[in-house]
Each structure stands twice: as structure tokens, then as C-alpha cells.
Specification:
Elements: H1 5-14, H2 37-40, E1 49-54, H3 60-68, E2 72-78, H4 84-91, H5 95-102, H6 106-114, E3 122-126, H7 131-138, E4 145-148, H8 157-163, E5 168-171, H9 183-195, E6 198-202, E7 205-209, H10 215-237
Parallel strand pairs: 1-2, 1-4, 2-3, 4-5
Antiparallel strand pairs: 5-7, 6-7
Helix pairs in contact: 4-5
This protein binds S-adenosylmethionine (SAM).
S-adenosylmethionine binds near residues 31, 60, 129, 149 and 151.
Length: about 240
């Protein structure tokens, strides 16, 4: 269902942007394991469309959803806090960004500064899933698509479906954690089995479908399977 003017109004009032852009350098940090075309194809290009992303980091996916069409709106949930931000930036050689993260509210204000030009269509929700999901549902918000990219466990998929039964469910990390047996897969498969959904995956991206898969989607799954085997073999012979 297209996002209503009322929803835009409510979200802007509940999750306001600062009046002045924070004096933090904008940062680009692409975390992308591939396969997002599966999602772009599902984001309505004509009518307005509301994406809810759980785990936004510095907004590399958020920017990609917003770029699909000027009719796309995004709610980005993330606590944007914790010591790990500074360590993570340092480990990746991003020393000036690490210094910026170390300032008060560094990650949050860096996010806002980086996404400033999208502030009419982006609602930053500072906090955690699932708590923030209940808050959004109580406000009457109905996302068209939910993208899971927070803690790689998928432990909030059921809650999302309960609160937003019509939303397309999709996420990242399908290829993350070979050693741990790809943790996101267990939750996604359990959910699919319980609610009679089908799964399609392409590289890191997965989508839950409430219909039979097309031949092209079955081929995608076979390709994913072949890539899994190649990855496992590489690990054995490394
Ligand atoms: C892998 S990063 C997300 C990458 C991001 N989607 C992108 O495109 O760059 C994971 C993010 O999830 C956030 N996170 C962790 N637990 C969360 C939770 N319970 N709810 C919302 N966000 C969470 C972290 O703060 C972190 O920024």
C-alpha cells in the first residue's frame, strides 16, 4: 500500500532531523554482499513505497533504496551507539572516521550528516529492533518492505510479520558465517516453513515469497547453492 501523507507527517514529527546539519564529515562506507537487484525489482517505481531497514549503519543500503525512485521513503532503525564503532573504523584503516565516531553521538550524527540531502524521505529511528518495531506499529506505520541487516540472527522476523503482515520480508547475510552454518538461514527457513513462504536468494540477499518460485528464481537458488559448494571447497583446500 502506498505510504500516506498522514504516515509521512507522523514519521517526520516523531523522528525529526536537527534544524542544522551536524558538523560531521559525511562518510561513505559500502557494506554490500550483492544480490540487491532482487529487492530493487520489488520496490514500487510508480507509487510511493515505504522501506523499513533494520540495521542501517552509515546508510549504504538506505541510499540504494532511495535511489530507486523519488517515491521511495525509508525508515532506518539503528542504535548508532557502542564502543565497537571506533574499533571497527580503526581496524579498517578509517582513522579520521574513528575519531569522528569517538565524539559524542558520533555514529548517529555522522549518519545524519551523510544522508542530509534525503531528509524529506528518510526517517532515522534511533534504537533497537524489536522495541522500535512496536513503537512504529503503534503509530500506525505500515512498511511495504522490511530489510533485515542488523545482527545476522533473524530473531525478529516473526515479530515483523506479526506487526506488518503485508510487508515483503527480505534481508542480507545469506552468505555470512560459513563456519557457523550461515546463521541467518536457519531463521529464514524456519519462518518460511511455518508460514508457507518460499525463499529466493542471490549472493548475500534473500527474499521471502508468498507464491511459487518462477523458473528464473529457481535458477538463482541453484546458482546460490553452487556458490555455497565452491565456498565450502575453497575453505577445505585453503
Ligand atoms: C552490518 S551493519 C548494517 C549495514 C547497513 N545495512 C549498510 O547498508 O551499510 C549492522 C548494523 O545493525 C545495527 N544493529 C545491531 N543490532 C541492532 C538492533 N537490534 N536493531 C537495529 N539495529 C541494530 C548496528 O548498529 C549496525 O549499524
Amino acid at each position: 500500500m502506498p505510504i500516506t501523507e498522514n504516515e509521512v507527517h507522523t514519521l517526520s514529527a516523531e523522528y525529526p532531523w536537527p534544524v542544522v546539519r551536524p558538523t560531521f564529515s559525511p562518510a561513505d562506507w559500502m557494506l554490500d554482499g550483492g544480490g540487491k537487484e532482487l529487492i530493487f525489482a520489488r520496490i514500487g517505481k510508480g507509487e510511493s513505497f515505504l522501506v523499513l531497514e533494520i540495521g542501517a549503519f552509515l546508510g549504504s543500503s538506505v541510499k540504494q533504496w532511495l535511489a530507486v525512485s523519488p517515491n521511495v521513503y525509508v525508515i532506518a532503525i539503528d542504535p548508532w551507539e557502542g564502543d565497537w564503532w571506533v574499533d571497527y573504523a580503526r581496524k579498517n584503516g578509517r582513522n579520521s572516521l574513528a575519531e569522528q565516531f569517538a565524539r559524542e553521538d558520533g555514529p548517529y550524527l555522522t549518519f545524519l550528516s551523510s544522508l542530509w540531502k534525503f531528509k524529506e524521505r528518510l526517517f532515522p529511528v534511533r534504537g533497537k529492533s524489536p522495541e522500535k518495531l512496536y513503537e512504529l506499529a503503534n503509530l500506525g506505520v505500515k512498511p511495504d518492505l522490511v530489510y533485515f541487516d542488523s545482527n545476522k540472527t533473524g530473531d525478529d522476523i516473526d515479530v515483523v510479520h506479526q506487526l506488518f503482515p503485508d510487508a515483503i520480508l527480505t534481508g542480507d547475510d545469506w552468505t555470512w558465517g560459513l563456519e557457523q552454518g550461515y546463521p541467518i538461514r536457519a531463521s529464514v527457513r524456519k519462518f518460511a516453513h511455518k508460514h508457507n513462504f518460499k525463499i529466493v536468494s542471490d549472493r548475500a540477499t534473500w527474499v521471502l515469497m508468498q507464491r511459487s518460485l518462477k523458473i528464473s528464481e529457481r535458477v538463482m537458488n541453484l546458482t546460490s547453492f553452487a556458490r555455497d559448494q565452491a565456498r565450502a571447497l575453497r575453505k577445505v583446500f585453503r
